[in-house]
């Protein structure tokens, strides 16, 4: 391959990547527009939920209300865009995959949406109430009057919900990268100590500094990693079996040619 052909190939790859990014951005903008229509019902639900009772939320800026609506619309758009983004990533890398790898990795895309919703539910109904209860208790012990702006409340909420929800995509991400032969269960087992440290650090940072709260978040995260290793092993075994089958076909073909 000449240098000119290599440059053309690189240009084609960059052009394809730009096209995929434009698709993702377009869906994100459409999701953002749709998010503004659901922002008020979501806001009403969140402010009337049990965790928000007892708080009188204030607006300290003319833009606070609009800012909260934009954050809700943004989160809604991320939820909608996430599986589409993964699909576009698959479309970008699929030409370099074998047919069976292409078909297997495509199956992961619908579950991106499902796992993200599970992560949202876990972070909102489990992690967020614990963090809120802890900060409220400390505030009361210090004799302070709780006067919160709506911006601070929702920033605190989204700052917990979004990272934890994304962590729930870990099993699918590992399976996808295994399908692309970037990761494998052997490498994941070697990385277990480092991975555990990172996940424990995340659990400690996003939860109140008490053992029960840490464990309630830490254990699911560690289980997610072990599930990821298990699923990676399944994908990896299928890859090895497919490779052996292809090699066997090649050997049979060579033998037939020599026989002929």
Automatic annotation (TrEMBL):
Pfam families: TatC
Bilayer-crossing regions: 21-46, 66-90, 111-134, 154-182, 194-212, 218-236
InterPro entries: Sec-indep_translocase_CS, TatC
Species assigned in the record: Paenibacillus cucumis (ex Kampfer et al. 2016)
Assembly behavior: Forms a complex with TatA.
Classification of source organism: Bacteria, Bacillati, Bacillota, Bacilli, Bacillales
Intracellular or extracellular location(s): Cell membrane; Membrane
Job description of the protein: Part of the twin-arginine translocation (Tat) system that transports large folded proteins containing a characteristic twin-arginine motif in their signal peptide across membranes.
PROSITE patterns linked: TATC
Protein name per Swiss-Prot or TrEMBL: Sec-independent protein translocase protein TatC
Keywords attached to this entry: Cell membrane, Membrane, Protein transport, Translocation, Transmembrane, Transmembrane helix, Transport
Keyword Transport set for record: yes
Membrane topology category: Multi-pass membrane protein
Predominant location category: membrane
Record NCBIfam families: tatC
Domain of life of the source: Bacteria
Similarity section: Belongs to the TatC family.
């Amino acid at each position: 391959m000449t240098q000119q052909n290599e440059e053309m190939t690189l240009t084609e790859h960059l052009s394809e990547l730009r096209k995929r990014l434009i698709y993702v951005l377009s869906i994100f903008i459409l999701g953002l527009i749709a998010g503004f229509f659901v922002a008020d019902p979501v806001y009403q639900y969140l402010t009337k939920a049990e965790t928000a009772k007892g708080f009188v939320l204030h607006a300290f800026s003319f833009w606070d209300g609009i800012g909260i609506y934009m954050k809700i619309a943004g989160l809604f758009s991320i939820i909608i865009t996430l599986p589409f983004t993964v699909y576009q990533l698959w479309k970008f890398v699929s030409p370099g995959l074998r047919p069976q790898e292409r078909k297997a990795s495509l199956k992961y895309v619908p579950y991106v949406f499902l796992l993200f919703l599970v992560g949202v539910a876990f972070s909102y109904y489990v992690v967020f109430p614990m963090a809120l209860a802890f900060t409220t208790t400390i505030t009361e012990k210090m004799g302070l009057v709780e006067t919160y702006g709506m911006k601070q409340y929702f920033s605190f909420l989204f700052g917990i919900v979004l990272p934890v929800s994304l962590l729930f995509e870990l099993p699918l991400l590992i399976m996808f990268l295994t399908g692309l032969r970037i990761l494998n269960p052997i490498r994941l087992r070697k990385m277990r100590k480092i991975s555990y440290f990172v996940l424990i650090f995340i659990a400690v940072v996003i939860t109140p500094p008490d053992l029960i709260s840490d464990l309630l978040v830490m254990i699911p995260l560690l289980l997610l990693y072990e599930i990821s290793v298990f699923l990676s092993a399944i994908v990896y075994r299928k890859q090895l079996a497919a490779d052996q089958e292809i090699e066997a076909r090649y050997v049979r073909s060579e033998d037939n040619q020599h026989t002929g």
